[in-house]
Structures are given as structure tokens and as C-alpha cells.
Amino acid sequence: MWSPTDSVSNPQPTQGEQQKHQGGGETAYIGKSLLIKGEVSGSEPIHIEGRVEGSISLPGGHVSIGRAGVVVSSVQAGEIIVRGTLQGNVKASDRVEIYRGGTLIGQVITQRISIEDGAEMQGSIEMVRPDPKAHLESSHHAGSRANGEPSSTEYHVPAALNNN
Prior knowledge:
With 164 residues, the protein is mainly beta. It has a domain at 26-129. The protein is built from two helices and 14 strands; from the N terminus they run H-E-E-E-E-E-E-E-E-E-E-E-E-E-E-H. The chain has helices at 15-20, 132-138, and strands at residues 28-30, 35-37, 40-41, 46-48, 51-53, 56-65, 70-72, 75-82, 85-87, 90-98, 103-105, 108-115, 120-122, 125-127. Strands 1, 3, 4, 6, 8, 10, 12 and 14 form an eight-stranded parallel beta sheet that branches. The protein is globular and about 45 Å long.
């Protein structure tokens, strides 16, 4: 929690927020009295207690909207946590969490979603599966050739399932 003795330029999010995303780096904090109109993009985690009107794009990153936070825009990130109000379409590559007292109005596209009792959700939810190739590409390049090109992979279909 920020106090007058803390640095004005870098107030810290709550300890729970810091523990929630241990991906490294400091969290950008938008305070209660701040209004941002325009595009927000980057790679570091962001915690919003103020108001943001404009798109937020943190692919693979973490967006947290605090209880006093209001976001009126589309949001794209790896993880989106809503404790305040978010009005706009949401695309999360990992998950969306809406906590008690939080409100999300819009279309949600994500792999996982959690809506706590007392939270409000208005709109649609589209659950997507993780890309199975992403796991293969990130696994130590075991199937790569010496020249850096991926090796081909064959899948065998049992004869009983083959329509030919």
C-alpha cells in the first residue's frame, strides 16, 4: 500500500499482486487519480486503480484492474484480473479472473476463466484450447535438424478410423 513517504513516481501494488505474477520486472501502477486516454502497450505487468480509456495490449503480460479501477477499452494480455470494472472485449492467452465486486461487460476469449460469487459478467465467453504446436516448438528443439529447420512429424491413424 502506498503512503506519503513512498516515492511518488513508483508506488507499489499490494503484496498479493506482486506474488500473483512472478514473471519478473516491476509492476506499472496507474493510481486512483489518473486518467489515461489512448493506447497502452508494453511487456511489463500493469495494475490499474485509475481510469483507462483506450486499448491495452500486453501480449503474454499481466493486467490487473483494482477495486477502484475502471477500464473502458479492449484488453489483450496473457492474464487479466478484474476486481474493478472492465467494459470492452477481452482476449487472454492464459486466463481471466473476475473477483467479487468486479464487473466485466464484453466478449471474452481465453483458455481459462474464473468468476467468483458476487462478480458480474455480461457478454459472451469463448473458450479456446491451447495451441498444441506451441508446446512442441518450445520443447528444447528436440526435433530440429542441424540446419535449424524443424523435422517433419507423421501421425498414424488406426485403420478403423481411416475413411479411405
